[in-house]
Amino acid sequence: MPVNKPDSLGHVGVIRYGFFPADRGVRREVEELRAEGFNVCVVCRRDERQAAVETIDGIHIHRLPVGGRGDSLWSYLVSTKVFCLLATLRLVWLHQRKPFQFVQVNNPPDYLTAVAIVLRLLGAKIILRVQQPVPEHFEVRYSKWYHKPISRVLRLTETVSVKVSDRVIVQNRRIRDRLGERGADLNKIAMVMDVIADSAIRLDEHQLLVDKITDARKGERRQGIFTIVTHLPVERDSGVDMVVKAVARLQDRLPGLAYRLIGGGSYIARVLRLAQEMNVSDRVQFVGALGIDEMIGEILTADIGIVPVKKNPYTDLLHSTTIYDYIAMGKPIIASRLEALTAYFAEDSLIYFESEDADDLAEKIYSVFAYPEDVGIRVSNTSDIYDAHRWERERKKYVGVYQQLLKG
After folding, report:
1. Using an 8 Å Cβ cutoff, are 169 and 192 in contact?
2. Dist CA 11 CA 96 (whole Å)
3. 204, 210, 215, 220 alpha-carbon torsion, rounded to 10°
4. Domains detected in the chain
5. If we measure between CA atoms, which residue out of 356, 358, 349 comes closest to residue 326?
6. Strand partners, 15
7. Nearest-5° Cα angle at 247, 243 to 252
8. pLDDT band for position 91 (50/70/90)?
């Protein structure tokens, strides 16, 4: 993180219905604001192991006692409404002590902007950070409740949230264009890719490990040992079940194949049960959630990073941040063919497979093993695309949103 400048640019409140500092994207952004010279206060949820109020690296954190969302729609609605009420009260109290110049709302839900509207009446400017397109997310996650009246309410809420915000930040062109189709003013929308900062990876500190892995991999390849990895939330649409099926299809052709499954989620037990049913439990190794250094070690050790997310109206709009982790560490990537990805990454960069097609995924895995000389070109092409969107570039666009509003 850059060296902090004196607090001189104003007071920023950041609202996130989630946990901090566990939310890597929010942490990266507030660290940049703090480094730029803003005083930053984050209002988020609290788990039982966290302090209600604390300061980390100059960032003031206020955690609210709001329970877990659960899987049911009712639980989610109650939890988010309680959070909105408590967040409003806390921010108004904080504003009275030190006025906010800006309030950044990180959705979902979109109606979190209702909290910021109170502060806008008191003189603050609102920045909406669209981390998820809520109507599409709702359509996929709560499909049995999704019908025309609900769809209209969600889109109206999204439209109002965008309209009352002074600026809106999205992660890619697909989301920007979708908001535009729904009537948003494209002039107020900025695109800031949600990529990992090079400073967070610190590959130079892992150079000894990189060298050892490079030497070891040559011998492993000759012995037929080949490691694939996924690191993402293990949920219904994560597609990790497709990876397990692909591993099963490659048992005879690639007997040294091992799959390292990184991450937590509600679908883990089902995935491990599927591995047992397909007789590949010994090849599917569940690692769990990891810290940044452990995660880097796992990815560096792997031969391929896989992003198997299933195609649906929601995932077709998003980039998985996992992709940028793999790219930053020089890994070839096999990814399901999603419109948000093909809009940025050409056919000669990522290795695409058809979503939910385990046979196609198995063939792509085997081709990387069998023809490693072709992989280097793809890694280079992917890196070239990534260079245009490194966080060191994206951060300027992110901080620039605040600087433009300061100028009026």
Report:
1. yes
2. 12
3. -170
4. 11-195+390-407 (3.40.50.2000), 201-387 (3.40.50.2000)
5. 349
6. 43, 105
7. 165
8. very high
